[in-house]
Specification:
heterodimer; A: alpha+beta; Phosphatase 2c, domain 1; six-stranded antiparallel beta sheet; five-stranded antiparallel beta sheet; 34% helix; B: alpha+beta; three-stranded antiparallel beta sheet; 10 strands
Chain lengths: 256, 561
């Protein structure tokens, strides 16, 4: 397996601070090439959301560097990975909540984590409304937004169109750092050569369509990291032109 | 930060810190002059922090608003002290445990307990919503409700220094940090009104009675019986109605919610099953009534709308219902919605007198609704007319102490005096019943007091005014031939018996024989023109026919001496 990676993040047209954090790591291991990516969208406005997102991103990156190598030969690798990720999320949830309690502020972050193995297996851990897409002939949204409006859509109380303009569209059901009870989503699957993975904060997807995303990020014609990065920059600029006020972050991984 | 033991304003000694928010701290303080404990909220000023300036301004604004309030479920604000560095808001120190702590320690609370708290919370919301302009609390949640050692609750934290105001629409937030906010509270535009508080109260009740925080998985307000099948279906319906996404679909006022809470059992399935038949029969009338009222009341404000339609609805139903107990129930329900409207009471009076007997049970039911609502009712413009009707109900139909052997005329009169008194007191002098009410009252008072006056030998001079009242009453009755036969007969009875008993006294007080004879003739003529249609009237008429001769001879005897 060989992977191309690219990322771009932008504070956006309105906020003073970029509260998003991201990490991409590629490693050669005993089981072949492994790609690990994290996107966290911090929140709290004036209240230091960037601390929360950076902290969680850093905790996952550290796990990948120090803990993951010790478990790659474990026959129950999948269970081990999810077990550890649950532990990290739960610990971070407590640490951030404690920090908030100490300074009397409320802060938190989303967390979407992707691990890809040479064997063609991928693993995802997910809290909040950042997203992981898989793009090949079509676009598949792999994660499920943990938002109030998404819940309402699933229950048939809102249509997708209504959800986009609903005042509660930015309300998360849970996040790392501000939820007494946190139940992350974990999922896994198989990927093939030619698949492209896209991780993004919600700022990346409100103002542009899936068609626009695939017309820029087409795995069939993307051949290098440079053009992937340009595509991400173009899409983020498009978002800003259309008035998106949030921080915008996206990263892409192409398997070749 | 204010040091422990520091004395503020030469009066309040800081004892310890009991709470802390982002920009405010709460201390327990001792009032040195009153030797009493207060809670003092301190907001520190910081001119360089734009957010802080906002917090300080809103703290002052809210403190100034709250100091005008006085309700048993609200802490009073007794002092506001401002210095260049800080604001101190001095308020009642509320002892007890907040309901979120109670929940985390003991889990779900009993249904009875929760309904009791719900009523108290409804009461205080109603008080806030009735202020001009209405105060919307916006932050109802277990953490803001304190259970006091005496079992009553107090509502705390009016967002003095509440800090979410600077949050921007595009900021992502987590459900848990927004508390139990209603859908319309998201998005910063703040289209909140009294129905926002209804929503938050509904969610609070949900958490209290199920023990499940709706801000935690599964993030859903399931029907409460899904958590505990033993809970009331009525309460389930109430909570579901409170927590509708669309404000239009919720209870429109806290009074309406309180009304539902007070009879939550009637919303239970079993009860509804029993009522279904009646509801079915009446439903087409209800539809007609709603359409009519909808057209008529469109111009009224949102809050009044549902109340009005409910009220009018009940009245309409009551007027169309034939069963006396159903009608009574409908009118009483209507009264509970609008205790200051006379119409429903008048409906009750009419059904109570329909069978010419105002029974003891009926009297108890009427007294119950009157006693609780009398002060509000007295503000109503047609209270006087209602009081007059109630007076007549007692005067002519009250059944207490009545038996085959003895009449209860004195009891009936005595019971009615206060109502005629109210009719005189609250009614306009030009009203048609004003003169009649005065006469009834005076006749009643005469009959109530005469026995004692005779015993005290102070009765002299009382008879002439009484006689004149009696004559006037007779005249008025003869001029209204459509009056109920029982009313006519009772007036003739009063006249004939009075002549029989007091002929000599009338004479002594200077009434001429001609006057008395004229009164007697009037009564006799009236009596003969009554064609009794009921057994009760027939019996009474026969008795009176038998007394005519005795009364006539009483006149003859008195004036022959």
């Amino acid at each position: 397996m060989h992977s191309f990676t690219a990322y771009h993040t932008d504070v956006g047209i309105h906020k003073k601070i970029n509260e998003d954090s991201l990490s991409i790591q590629v490693a050669d291991t005993a089981i072949g090439e492994v790609v690990f990516a994290v996107v966290c969208d911090g929140m709290g406005g004036l209240q230091r959301g960037e601390l929360a997102s950076a902290n969680v991103t850093r905790a996952f990156a550290e796990w990948f560097e120090t803990d993951f190598p010790t478990m790659i030969l474990d026959p129950n690798l999948q269970d081990k990975i999810f077990e550890k990720w649950a532990e990290i999320i739960s610990t971070q949830n407590r640490v951030i909540a404690d920090y908030g309690a100490l300074y009397k502020i409320v802060l938190g972050t989303t967390a979407s984590v992707l691990l890809m193995l040479e064997s063609g297996k991928f693993f995802i851990g997910h809290v909040g409304d950042s997203r992981v897409y898989c793009i090949n002939q079509s676009v598949h949204q792999l994660t499920d937004d943990q938002t109030v409006v998404n819940k309402e859509v699933k229950n048939g109380r809102l249509t997708i169109e209504q959800a986009e303009s609903d005042p509660r569209r930015n309300v998360l059901l849970q996040c790392v750092g501000a939820s007494p009870t946190l139940v992350p989503d974990f999922m896994f699957g198989d990927f093939s050569v030619g698949d492209m993975f896209l991780l993004c904060s919600d700022g990346f997807r409100h103002e542009i369509s899936l068609d626009e995303i695939t017309s820029h990020l087409n795995p069939a014609i993307t051949r290098d990291e440079e053009s992937m990065r340009n595509a991400l920059v173009d899409l983020i600029e498009l978002n800003k032109q259309r008035g998106e006020r949030d921080n915008i972050t996206a990263l892409a991984i192409l398997v070749s | 930060m204010t040091a422990i033991n520091k004395v503020i304003d030469d009066k309040y000694e800081i004892l310890k810190m009991i709470g802390q928010g982002g920009m405010s701290k709460v201390y327990l303080a001792m009032d040195r002059r009153l030797n009493k404990q207060w809670a003092i909220k301190e907001v520190t000023k910081n001119d360089r922090d734009r957010n802080n300036v906002h917090v300080v301004q809103s703290a002052m604004a809210e403190a100034n608003m709250l100091k005008r309030l006085d309700h048993p479920s609200l802490p009073r604000i007794v002092d506001i002290i401002e210095d260049p560095q800080r604001i101190y808001v001095v308020m009642d120190y509320v002892e007890g445990e907040s309901l979120d702590k109670v929940l985390s320690m003991y889990g779900a609370q009993t249904q009875e307990q929760v309904i009791n708290w719900a009523k108290q919370l409804c009461g205080v919301l109603n008080y806030l919503h009735s202020c001009t302009p209405p105060i919307i609390y916006r932050d109802m949640k277990p953490a803001n409700v304190v259970l006091q050692p005496n079992g009553n609750i107090k509502l705390l934290d009016f967002g003095i220094a509440r800090e979410y105001k600077d949050q921007k629409i595009e900021d992502t937030v987590s459900l848990g940090t927004k508390g139990y906010a209603a859908p319309e509270q998201f998005g910063g535009k703040g289209q909140t009104d009294v129905r926002t508080d209804i929503y938050c109260l509904g969610v609070t009740l949900y958490h209290l009675v199920t023990g499940h925080n709706p801000c935690e998985p599964p993030y859903e307000l399931y029907p409460i019986r899904q958590w505990n099948p033993n809970l009331s279906g009525g309460l389930e319906r109430i909570i579901q109605k409170c927590t509708q996404l669309n404000p239009e679909d919720r209870y429109q006022s806290s009074a309406e919610l309180l009304y539902a809470l007070e009879r939550y059992e009637t919303f239970d399935d079993a009860y509804r099953q029993r009522q279904k038949k009646i509801v079915f029969l009446q439903s087409f009338l209800t539809v007609a009534a709603i359409l009519f009222i909808g057209a008529g009341f469109l111009s009224l404000g949102l809050r009044a709308r549902t109340n009005n339609s409910d009220y009018e609805n009940l009245i309409q139903l009551a007027q169309k219902t034939t069963s006396e107990t159903d009608t009574e129930r409908l009118y009483i329900s209507a009264i509970e919605i609008k205790p200051s409207e006379a119409e429903a009471y008048r409906g009750l009076v009419n059904i109570y007198k329909a069978d010419a007997v105002f029974s003891i049970r009926e009297e108890e039911a009427l007294t119950k609704v009157l006693r609780t609502n009398l002060s509000e009712l007295r503000d109503s413009s047609d209270y006087a007319d209602l009081a007059f009707q109630i007076g007549k109900l007692y005067w002519y139909y009250y059944d207490y102490g009545k038996s085959d052997a003895t009449d209860n005329q004195i009891t009936r009169m005595k019971s009615s005096i206060q109502w005629f008194e109210d009719a005189v007191l609250f009614g306009s002098e030009n009203s048609e019943y004003h003169q009649m009410a005065t006469i009834y009252r005076d006749i009643g008072m005469f009959n109530r007091d005469i026995v004692i006056n005779v015993q005290e030998a102070s009765d002299s001079g009382k008879y002439a005014p009484y006689f004149n009242n009696m004559v006037q009453l007779l005249e008025m009755i003869n001029n209204s031939p459509d009056e109920n036969e029982i009313v006519l007969l009772e007036v003739y009875k009063l006249s004939i018996y009075s002549i029989e008993n007091y002929a000599r006294k009338f004479k002594a007080d200077g009434i001429t024989r001609d006057s008395i004879q004229e009164a007697f003739d009037n009564a006799e003529r009236g009596l003969s023109s009554v064609s009794a249609t009921t057994d009760k009237a027939d019996e009474l008429k026969a008795t009176l026919d038998g007394r005519l001769e005795i009364a006539q001879s009483a006149i003859d005897n008195a004036y022959s001496e």
